[in-house]
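Appendix B. Extra example for self-study. Work through it before the problem class; the solution is given directly after the inputs so you can check yourself.
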Amino acid sequence: MKYETVIGLEVHVQIKTKTKIFCSCSTQFGTPANENTCPICLGMPGVLPVLNKHFLESSMRACLATHCTIQPMNRFARKNYFYPDLPKGYQISQFELPLGTCGHINIYVDGTKKRIGLTRIHMEEDAGKLIHGENLGNPGKSYVDFNRTGVPLCEVVSEPDMRSAEEARAYLTELKSILEYTEVSDCNMEEGSFRCDANVSIRPIGQKEFGTRTELKNLNSFKFIQKAIEYEVDRQTKVLDQGDTVKQETRLYDADRGETFPMRSKEEAHDYRYFPDPDLVPILIDDAWVEKLQKTIPELPEQKRERFVSKYGIPEYDTGVLTSSKLLADYFEQCASLLPQPKIISNWIMGDLLRELKKDGKDIADFPITPSALVELLKLIDSGTISGNIAKGVFEEMYQTKKSAESIVEEKGLKQITDSSAIEKIVDNVIQANPSQVEEFKGGKEKVIGFLVGQVMKESKGKANPGMVNKLLKEKMV
Ligand code: ADP
Ligand code: MG
Ligand code: ZN
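Solution. Structure tokens for the complete assembly:
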């Protein structure tokens, strides 16, 4: 039997704020355990939550950037459950009246555009964190850190619109990028600011109804998300092929073993006994407020990609890479404003620049070569002062030493040899040293010229002008 994969994603995004959602404790990551706490986020009896307005407005901006409709009336609800990291015994979240609904994000996979629906974006508080004693040399005991309770989150719930692990990845990449562009979150996956649960099911091709889904948790990198989905599709396929049924359950992904395993049977909404939180008033949002925030939404990745194609005439593939981060896109545009050779600039950024950054696990924010310094290097190639090949070495040196292209070329004597008598000498030597190849060339095997050019370049340490080498060799071998 052939099956189709169906995926819906729930993403918890930590919204960038100085203070927590309902109190004035700091949201600073990495402070000593339980330092960022107060009676409100510790859930003491009788305390009252007060909503952080900056958080609300950032959440509204997240809705606008993903084409969600902001509900004129939305409210918080209590989601009741017991867990040691949840001091109140309930989480303040939103249920029947969320902040935003009916949004969408466009993704591109294999060159085709696809729209993925967003069911809702709602606001909620984060829970605390359990630390198990094994990690503290104290096995058998568990500790709790409440620094994270009350950290503000948005949960972004997609429609079950994705049909492959690649589409899921493309969706997450685009969502992350939108949230970074709007600066509502830093989306730092290692610090848990962007956490994803994947709902996965399969159905026989042609069947209308969805199959039973499992929910995968503990996916803290794009690579693991993709692997976990692929594993789960395989597993469900085997279950159905054996004539069994998939159980609706929550499963954990074990990155070391590359497998998912059951954690608990799936809870239903009614298990949580949701009800409107009586401590918090409903939130009323009028059009004027929405319009005010709409004006603060910057150019988003998709618009930027379209503009890069029309303004700079570079391929869609390039625009995808260049706009993957706003800083990288800005870097490209600064270069392009100094040198009207967008495709050449794009090639250098996608090739050498990103390679160096990846090698060192760095971000464009840490990149030491300024746009004008890179353009200076590219101008040296353009004017024929150095060859493209030599330039690659100069680029590496600029990256390591922060020196300018000019000074590296000067110091190392890398200027291209364009003096024809100097090149002629080397050409003569090479012709003399390789009589059989010369004969082959004369006999009509023109491809040998490549070898001979290579020899001349080698002898000139890469500095001879390749065009002149070619011309001289041909002239001398007739
Ligand atoms: P819950 O809190 O129970 O997980 P939500 O409604 O918050 O429920 O999230 C459900 C998620 O599961 C959504 O992203 C939705 O698109 C997805 N989903 C629902 N049914 C299926 C299915 N049959 N296969 C895959 N994903 C599904
Ligand atoms: Mg869920
Ligand atoms: Zn607090």
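Self-check: The chain has 15 helices and 16 strands. If your reasoning did not lead you there, revisit section 3.
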